[in-house]
Write a structure and sequence with these properties.
The protein has 336 residues and is of the alpha+beta class. Among the domains are: 83-202; 233-334, Arc Repressor Mutant, subunit A (Orthogonal Bundle). The chain has 15 helices and 8 strands. The mean pLDDT is 87. Keywords: DNA-binding, Transcription, Transcription regulation. It comes from Halovibrio salipaludis.
Length: 336
Amino acid sequence: MARLTVSAHFVTAALAGARRQGYDTHAMMREAGIEPELIEQEQARVTGNQYTRLMQVIWATMKDEFMGFAPARSRPGTFATLCQLVIHCDNLDCVLRRASHFYGLFETGITMPLSIRGEEALITLETEAPLSDDSHRFLRESLLVIWHRLSSWLIGQGIPLTRVSFDYPEPAHSHEYRGIFHAPMLFDQPQTGLAFPVRYLQEPVIRDELEMRHFLMTSPADLMARPDDRNSYTARIRALIGRDFTQPIPDFEAIAQQLNTSPQTLRRRLRAENTSFQEIKDNLRRDIAIVHLTRDQLSINEIAHRAGFTETSTFHRAFKKWTGVTPGAYRSRFCS
């Protein structure tokens, strides 16, 4: 599965707990293949593989799956043990209730209980005490992502969210949520949580223990770097476009036809998912370029070609708009 790139904001946010406890966060970034100078650039991004590795380094170094944000440590292996318990559930309802009970056994002070209100199921984040130095709201955001994507993976189909609620004001990085949740987002709400159609609670768990072992080799560290693999229009358009921008890509009308909908309806549905056709294309081009810059020895001209640009100068302007620096500066300053 192709990875997304991840905003440097989430690198800073993920390391906040370690920094507060006195860990050498620069060493942790370098171990993950990230140059510390990178996160000083507001618009910079890291590859999905770098971000996944960083999360693994944080967990292993701190020996805390909650990364220093909760009142008590969540010892390494807690999440894996939970996954081994829920894999034997009959359906998603059992998964979510068992998971909430499991985390309630520990002193971390964090649970995510399930409730039902009419035709909606809600998973809400509850904390017994304020989270430590989570001014970036990183732990709250990452728990929402983990539980949405784990739930979708367990039942073998994407769970469309009807809304995502946050108990804090809209942050400056909220635009990054568009590529994560694909749902209406509400801020300054009484609770932080996810809402989805209640019918998904009766969907059966289709994974087995062997699949779970493979899943746990990289997850949940990689879940924020994965594309949302549910059956959203964003995901379906990404699949239709592909990642080979050296060939002509379908135009919007052709995409709509392949999705058996009208262009007007497709635009409306993309707006509901907080995105647009142009943004989907731009994000794919951006991610392709960053991956090649960090991984390959290709020339800037060749990377521009692979990202779908006929003129290198146009690629330079677009890349600087996306990341704040030119492709050459990105490679020389940030790629180890």
